[in-house]
Every structure is written in C-alpha cells, then in structure tokens.
Amino acid sequence: MNRFDEQVVLVTGGAQGLGAAMARRFAAEGAVVAIGDVNVDAAVLLAASLQEEFGRPSSAHEVDVTDSASVAGWVDEIATAHGRIDVLVNNAGIIRDNRIEDIGDADWHSVVDASMTGSFYCARAVLPHMRGRKYGRIVSFSSMSWRGNFGQANYVAAKAGIVGLTRTIALETARQGITANAIAPGLIETPMLASMNAAARDKLVSKVPQRRTGRPEDIAEAAAYLCSPGAGYVSGVVLDVDGGLGVGSSIR
Questions:
Q1: Pairing mode, if any, of strands 238-241 and 178-185?
Q2: Burial 103-132 (b: 16+ CB within 10 A, else e)
Q3: Phi-psi group of 83: left, alpha or beta (phi > 0 → left; psi -120 to 50 → alpha; rest → beta)
Q4: What is the pLDDT of residues 194-211, one digit of tens each?
C-alpha cells in the first residue's frame, strides 16, 4: 500500500523502539519521514536506512519536545522544506516510576513535560499548517496505564492528560479535515520490557487474554490506520492495542 505517498510525516521519539517501527511503516508506504529525537545520532542512522531501503526522503533532527522553541523550529524547517505537514505522531516520552511520596519534583516534571507538554507543543506547532490545507492527522501516545497504575503517578497523569488533549484537539479541528486520536499500547516488545526480570515479565504476560506480548509492528499498524486518509471519520478516540488486557482485567 502507498497510503502516504508524498505525505510529510513527523515522528517524535522516532529514533528507536516504537517510534522507529512507525517511521519505517510510514516510509514503506511512501511518506517523507522527519524523525525528531534528542538522540540525533540514532535518528541519523535510521533516516539513512529508510531512505536507502524505500527511496523516499527521510531526515533526522535533534528535537527536544519539552522546549517549545526547539519544536517550533523543527516544524517550521520541515514545512519550509516540503511545503506541507500531513501527519504528526507524538511518541516521545520517558518513565521515572516510584510511589507518589518518593517522586521528586524533577521526576514529576520530566515525565509530564516529555509526554504531555511535548505533545501539546508539537500539536500547537503543526496545526496552522494543517488548517491551511484543511487536512491533517495527529496521533498521540497514551498507555494502558492512563486509567491508573501503581507506582506511576507522574506517567499516569501525563498519559491521562494526553487523552484529554487529544479529545480537545479533535473537537477544535473537526471542521478542518483534521483528526486527532490516541493509542494506548499494552505490553509491547520494547527495550524497557526486555529489561524486566523473567518472573515479573511472566506475571504481566499472564494477565493478557492473548497470553503474549505485542510487537512494535502492531503499534505501527494501528498508527498507520489512524493516520491514513481512510480514517477521516475516526477522531477523538483512544485505541487500545493491548491483546485484550483492558477488557480482560475487568472480569478477573
């Protein structure tokens, strides 16, 4: 498929993990992909690989999503170079888990700023370009944890905030051909999951109705659909990609 032929797609936190999987999927479907990440060396390597493999322009940019000037400069650079911005994927984020009373000010702000504030900065920057063309897709990353999770008050607050932000963007842009949706991944094969000890990992997997973890490609598939022209009547939703974990937990 070439659903994104000639479209310009921005992916934050796109140098590795889920971001890299999505960048690859968009490039495979014909997109011009701009990867924004603080890890610019990894982003450069990925952009070069995508361009060589798929023959479409891909670029890497050092972007700190917690810095509004950094975000605005990146977006303006891409819009000037390509004349359009079609898709924004807000994927950047970090974790600093702890019990509420043990979360310091720095760990609170760093997590909320990277996920929620960064998503706001990026959406705010791209919306004028999308409104001007009366077309756009914004997908932001929440988590199955947005409903509440032990030891993750900062992360949960950020991911719940993304849900509210997404729904508001969807309302404010509904008449301009722009959609805004969120993805809430479950247990996906990422370096963070791989770093868990085997017992903790097995305990988590046992709670998934499908009894397995997801792959980054599962997330990329969901993002590609929500960002496609064919998803124009889908806006303001949170798509769980979790092997049934969200619904399964309600009957256990």
A1: parallel
A2: beeebbebbbbbbbbbbbbbbebbbebbbe
A3: left
A4: 777 788 888 888 888 888
Adjacent-strand bridge partners of 181: 139
Dist CA 51 CA 86 (whole Å): 19
**One-letter identity of residue 208:** V
Report the top-level CATH class of 8-241: alpha beta
Give the chain's radius of gyration (CA, Å): 17
Confidence of residue 249 (pLDDT cuts 50, 70, 90): low
Active site residues: 155
Q: What is the domain partition of the chain in residue ranges? A: 8-241
Helix (H, G, I), strand (E, B) or coil at 124: helix
DSSP three-state, residue 182:
strand
* Separation of alpha carbons 7 and 31, rounded Å: 5
CA atoms within 13 A on the CB side of 97: 7
**Nearest C-alpha neighbor of 10 from the set 18, 26, 21:** 26
Query: Which amino acid type is present at position 236?
Result: G
Mean pLDDT within 77-106: 96
